[in-house]
Structures
1.
Amino acid sequence: MPPNRIAIGIVDPGREINYYPVFEFLEANGLLASVTIYNPYDTQPKPDIVLASDEWCSEYSVKLLHAKVQKLPTLHIADGIVKWGNVWTNPRSLSEDAGMPMFQPILADRIACIGSFQARIFSSWGQTKKLALTGLPRFDKFISHFHSLQRLDKRSSFRADISNPKILIIVANQPGYTDDEISKARQSFHDLNLYVSQDLNCRHLNVVWRYGPRSPKVLPADLFGIVENDTSLFEALASSDYVIASPSTAALEAMSMDIPTCLIDYSGLPEFVHAAWVIRSKSTIDQEFCSLIKAPENRMNYQRFLLHDQIRMDGLATPRVCTLMQNMISLAESCLQQGVQPDFSRLRVDSPDFSYIQPYAYNPDLLFPAHPLFARSDVESLKCELGHLRLRLNQVESSPNTKLFSLFKLKARRFFSRLLKSPC
């Protein structure tokens, strides 16, 4: 019996970019019945599941809650990361006249988390039963690109031969929520712009800026370099060799393409995005910038570790999200027939298991260039060399001179031991 086709309702038209991979996957597998804008008062047949990509807008939140009252399963497919500022310094958290705090609680029955770190953040807010560690469908093209680089062994540690490298500076669309945060963000980009315009080390770089509609309020008027906002972020990153970014989802997207990525953040606030390079003040720009350009393998190895904690990278998210949707629909239908309230926390999503798979390339020859032995791959010669060395070591240890020297060392230790114990 073929699986049932799914009728989907969405509460937030205009944000379909977060759903397109899901729609395309279901359509390609003959599983998509329809996509409509969910209206709780519509007399037409109800959708099988309701999707949201944000819960900040009161209109969307009310619709989401109506869907739950109508016993329709609801799934939040987030548009990216969560940041300290949009929860704790956002006016919504400081005054009820400005709205409701973000994710306090999560309104949907389940939320598709981008990675382990985000899931732990939500769990710390008492939302454990709402979490599904699936990854986000719109990141699948970045994940595919990352794994293709790993298969081809094309890692960023080989960037030393690049001529006219391009550094992409990405400014978050919402650089802050308070006057102090905006001021610090403005100062950070003023300092960075001054550095790249004056430092001789930067003159061989192509400096490119990218920002959103609300970003210019923190940018200096005389930007050094060019502005490129007319291409997709994926295309912009694909042609970039280094990235400096505000704490944002874009920084993770750059890291997922194995590009050396540095955060710039003067705010002093706790970070919900982590990177191997961070500029926290004017005094650290030169140090972090120079290290970023060199992109040493130990930092890149750490960047890949941080990436896997922040984005689920062990496969595509879209099939996992679609399976979760099907399971939520089946559970809702079963509970409706039994006349009981559905408990979506019972549904499990497979979590990544790194006990049997290496999530990224480990290359001691690149991490420890001072030890050329790590670069050797001539296994048969190494075996033979090891055998000869073992034999030679046995010969040395069994020689009369070696035994005499060992006896001398033992007597010397005893002599100095007695000397130390004797009174002055």
Note: The chain has a mean pLDDT of 85.
2.
Amino acid sequence: MAVKPTTIQRDREFRLLKPLRIRDFRLLWLAQGVSLFGDQFYLVALPWLTLQLTGSGLALGSVLMVAGGARAVFQLLGGALSDRFSARSLMLISNIVRAAATATITALVTFGVVELWQLYALSIVFGVVDAFFFPASVSVVPQLVVKEYLPAANGLLRGTNRLMALSGPAIAGLVVFHRSLGSAFAIDTATFVFAAIMVWLMRKQVAAAPEEGEEGKTSEARSNRLLGSIIEGLKYSWRHPLVKYLLFFIAIIEFCFVGPSSVGLATLAKTRFETDWGASALGWMLSAFGAGMLIGMVVAGSMKADRGRGKVIIGATLLLGFGLLLLGFAHELLWAGVTLTFIGIGGGLANITILSLLQAETDRRMLGRVMGLLMFGSTLVESLSYALAGVIADESLTALFVGSGALLLIAISLSLTGRTLRALA
């Protein structure tokens, strides 16, 4: 006779879904998921349109570069504004601006009057808006759910992001091929409108500044100017032992992983697997990594928020480090794919665990600025990682992966000698 599950068993089984019981988080999740699906149409249509207009890879690279540059310039400012104004309001304005920008491009493409300079303008707008949207969207989560739900909430949001990134590009490619570029931009516009409506429906009081900030009124008074607010956020991040440690640890992971996962994987597919698999080798490897990331995020989101966080970070980093080491010696696509799946699992676990820990341990008044600093630092580190990966890959692909993996393993070993990570275990 089957035993009926107890309430505790059901509670454990559906831990990942708990945040969806909260109306405002549910609206945020819908807004983010639909908007991220629309982003895939933009990411396919914009490069295709640029190449149609110019036929130049240099032009495409520069269009993408100006978006990254604009995002980097305004990231710290975006974080400061997220702490001074309602995160909900910043997200709402961001979605409205993006909807207006993509609607304009839709009209220009539909009527056949689009020009290259307009794509540069669109990229700048998106870069600036992203700089304001990201800190707001991350800092609003702790305002919507209790601390114990943070891993599940981040797992749902980031897992949905990864799911959209896996499924969206193929659908977007079909729309561009069978319909038109205008249709792709129109779909992206519609998703931003939907996201804006969902954010607008969120209760205003939920996204307001938390009461915990009352004890910091004197400090806030000294930081009335925006520059002072940014500097205060930088000082807070440096003086808070755990926040500083986590930001540095994220920077190391990004540095060791971003370049090898983009430049390195493309080179790996070209030099070792092109004869048998052609360009599809890269697609299979990226899919394996993406699937692993999704698994890791779901697992991290299903864990309790207050237990074994240090152990999860240690284990995830070990998976990343040893995975990169093994990838350097992968001469068969199956080997590479299995290795990348485990690397993805480690990346997903680390992503959700560290982000949730940052959200839980950062003073609510400072969360936007800390997230802005995180985004700013990631942009700088990623750029350096791309550049170095390109140089090393040309000399030795094995050295790129082995060196990156070894650096990660050294970093986690050194971390274990201190008390910060061991205290979380």
Note: The chain has a mean pLDDT of 80.
3.
Amino acid sequence: MALDAHRQAAFEKACRHIDARRLRRRLQQITAIHSPTGAERALAEFLHGHLKEAGATAALQPIGDGSANVHARQSGRGGGASVLLYAPIDTHLDADPAIDVPWVGPTLRRDMRPIPADEPLVDDPEELVIGLGAANPKGMAATLIEAFLAIQEAGVPLAGDLLLGLAGGGMPWTETRRANRGLGDGVYHLEPGLCWFKVVVGGTLGYAGIPRGRPGFRSSIVPAAKVVLRLEDWLTRYAAANKSGQVLPEGWVSALRAGWPDKPAFPSAATEIYLDVRCSPRTTPADVKAQFAAAIEAIRRDDPSLELAWEMIAAYPGASTGPDNWIIRSAVRAWEAVEGKAHEPSQPRGGQTDISLIRNLHIPTARIGWNSPPAKLPPEFAEGLGGMGVAYVPDFVAACRKVIHIVIDTCTRRRADVGLQEH
């Protein structure tokens, strides 16, 4: 269903209001404002002021001392379908060498830290913005604001409301230093899910001078290495067995903890193994827990000498929106209209986002992304997270056009036209 002539004209008019320079400048500004999970307040206040200055009806929603959400609205004439444009605004690193190094590598690269005030904002003629969260999530936040403002400036007559939500606490971690923010909790104040497990390999406290084989001493660290390898093998089989549609629910052994780094003479009596196991929208956390339990039992059965205990320490259910839902079909139409070809689904992935929480609130949702990693990714930023901190602005301009297409395709129609109940 292509846009009719009236809607096509509105789409083209709104797209003429997309300002790539403005989008890039906004992205540079918000990439320069540090906003680790649970400490997004400064960025939220900036975005609130930015929207108000642009003439938007916007509000700041404080959450505790250090966090906040921002939301804005363009009211329709009534009776129409509404659309929420949503992105998180928090980043996954503290950008503090004392906290992040050596876990991110030997140093914090430029794509792992905010842009300092004394560094030039214009990176190079390739229209790149480089800094912590430049592509994900701040690139999408900057893009959604641009789409929101372009529609506002074009004066597109809407039937339903156009809403913009930018929330903190979106990253897949729980920040214990900041009121346990994270795992999408910002959405409560306005895809795939995950399950976190901890496995404890037991042993006895030892001393480095004890000969190997002495009765009564059992290392926990060496057996833990064997358990890690077994779990790595299981995770590969788990992902293949639980693949569903566009979701490939990967899992990783993410952290190990044992003993005292300042007392290596005393081997630890316990070694902890932490895993993040993703779950597809069609697999419940309870089912993932049962599969994990079976894997642990198989490890125990093959090596009865192992002392293993485990628990699921967090769970976040996956969710989906059916392919026949209006917002999904509208997103496909938008992709085809902007790209000029038949829709090509992305490779199955297991990235976890706030979308799972939004969908679990029974709100049909489509993910609109960009090329990741970007085609212009400098090789020095290619390893690891592969470009989360590198944004190529033309990619986001294309994403902005797709978002505008969806809004005009949806917000200009009555609720019944998009499969919603009339009131």
Note: The two ends are 25 Å apart (CA to CA).
